[in-house]
Amino acid sequence: MLTTRPRGTTDILPGQTEKWQYLEDTIRRLCRQYGYGEIRTPIFEHTELFVRGVGETTDIVEKEMYTFVDRGERSITLRPEGTAPAVRAYLENRLFAGPQPVKLYYIGPMFRYDRPQAGRYRQFHQFGVEVFGSHDPAVDAEVCAMAMDLYARLGLSGLKLHINSVGCPRCRPVLREKLREFFLPRLDGLCASCRERLERNPLRILDCKVDTCRQAAVDAPAALDYLCPDCKEHFQAVLKHLDALGVAYQVDRFLVRGLDYYTHTAFEIMAPDIGAQSSVGGGGRYNGLIAACGGPDTPGIGYALGLERILLAMERQGVVFPGEKRLDVFLATADDAAREKALPLLQSLRREGLAADRDYLGRSLKAQMKYAGKLGVELVAILGSDELCRGVVTLKNMATGRQEAVPLDRLADEIRNSKGE
Ligand code: AMP
């Protein structure tokens, strides 16, 4: 136990973290350009928030939450998703009283007690956006386009945007009824979960991944067939905007998303080459959620993208990550006198904005050079008794073998110049 992490979690180690930082930097730049501000909410919330905000009949709430009672006898849940916390923060901090719409983004870990497999973890990371306060179908199109823009900036290709409308509380009761009528004579073909869903949430049957349920659903009625005029108009406007933006999409009549609060637009983005867990992101409009959480009647829309799956897709597609050198210079010392000088010299280099490090294991000079090689350092600054006397260091380029004596007060500039070569 002491040397094994919990199932479904990962350690992200140096070498890998640089890829995460690159992904996160790209996301932050994207969000700035699209006018989103970052929100950071707690990792845990009151359980009730997710029960209400995600929906009692969802897999997340029924089976996947990390819930515990804290020392104050409160039921607490590690956040399984980011929308409900963002809504809570919007209400609690009265963001609805300021200028609308409010455009928020978040990046962070989420927790779901799911069966771990490639691309599915118990602690994973999502980047998500939420727009509160606008009904405009242009926003629906823009958030889809923004997600696709991110993938393109990361160098990913072949991703498919699937889109649908799931209707609204006005047209959904009709659809629910039609689905009940359709599936009732086909009950035997449905899995145990779907048989239960028939009463509580028949739309979710359309979303079931079990083969027999998929077969049973082939000719099922879909939301698109029963949209009210407003929903129809909204959906057509979204598609028109996507066309105008040149964003390719595929209308998927059976796309429903697992969450109860979605209205109108629902979408999902699939990557063809990352295996069974091919969804790299999804989202949609949730005009009922903010009121359901006790706030004013406010429309909302958002998405969440899985960062592990994006990185997986990038690796599978052979995307080259920009390399990041960890050190600009390694300071090697020949004896104790030099070692004593090394620490202040290192600090002065760091104050000059350079990344610099040294040996801390009492290695010989030769072993230090070897160690610097292993670290992949290009420049080694050598400090020995001769250099100390002359007030210089020997700066060695590990790639070319070229070396020269550099006065201490010119060292930082010289390292910077070599970096630019
Ligand atoms: P959801 O919040 O379920 O709509 O998921 C949005 C995105 O988060 C998915 O498309 C995945 O990319 C990612 N995701 C969801 N669950 C997991 C998980 N257990 N492990 C890794 N990524 C996940």
UniProtKB/TrEMBL annotation:
Subcellular localization, as worded in the UniProt entry: Cytoplasm
Matching Gene3D superfamilies: Anticodon-binding domain, Bira Bifunctional Protein, Domain 2
Subunit structure: Homodimer.
This protein's name: Histidine--tRNA ligase
Ribonucleoprotein found in the keyword field: no
BP terms from Gene Ontology: histidyl-tRNA aminoacylation
Domain of life: Bacteria
EC code(s) of this entry: 6.1.1.21
InterPro entries for this protein: aa-tRNA-synth_II, aa-tRNA-synth_II/BPL/LPL, Anticodon-bd, Anticodon-bd_dom_sf, His-tRNA-ligase, HisRS-like_core, HisRS/HisZ, HisRS_anticodon
Binding site for L-histidine: 81-83, 112, 126, 130, 257, 261-262
Molecular function GO terms recorded: ATP binding; catalytic activity, acting on a protein; histidine-tRNA ligase activity; transferase activity
Keyword Magnesium attributed: no
Chief location category: cytoplasm
Chain's gene name: hisS
Keywords: Aminoacyl-tRNA synthetase, ATP-binding, Cytoplasm, Ligase, Nucleotide-binding, Protein biosynthesis
A Gene Ontology term for the protein's cellular component: cytoplasm
Aminoacyl-transfer RNA synthetases class-II family profile domain span: 23-322
Catalytic activity: tRNA(His) + L-histidine + ATP = L-histidyl-tRNA(His) + AMP + diphosphate + H(+)
Organism of provenance: Desulfofundulus thermobenzoicus
Family classification: Belongs to the class-II aminoacyl-tRNA synthetase family.
